[in-house]
Structures are given as C-alpha cells and as structure tokens.
Amino acid sequence: MATTVLRVRLVSGDRMDITYDDPDVPDEADLVEHAISALAQDSGMLRTKHGDRLVVLYGRGVAAIEVAPRGAVV
Question: What is the model's pTM?
Fold first, then answer.
C-alpha cells in the first residue's frame, strides 16, 4: 500500500497538507499519478485525510498540488 502527503493549494488561495493512500497501488509514483489524473477529470475527487479527519477533495476546487521530495530540503 502506497501513502503520500500532498500539499494542496485551493482556488481560494488556502493551502492544506493531506495524506492520500490507496491499498491497490504499490508504488508512490503511481499513487501520485493516480491522484493527478483523478483530480484532472471534471467530476474527479479523492478521499484523503487531514489529521484524523476524512476529507473529500474535489478537483474543481484545486489550483495546484505539491509533492514533497524525500530527504532534506536544501
């Protein structure tokens, strides 16, 4: 099961860090591609977590997605 943390910038300008996982996807790179392709669709959405809360993220409200690199940020 792959898990990743995405920093999402919403159309309103707000940002939030969410955790996205999928038990059917074994690789983190495939998971990120799945998230991008899901949010690119007109009716695209992701079930994610923000802390202990379940958050449904709809593609029409997302302006940008950042994926944190592994290791130290220089």
Answer: 0.79
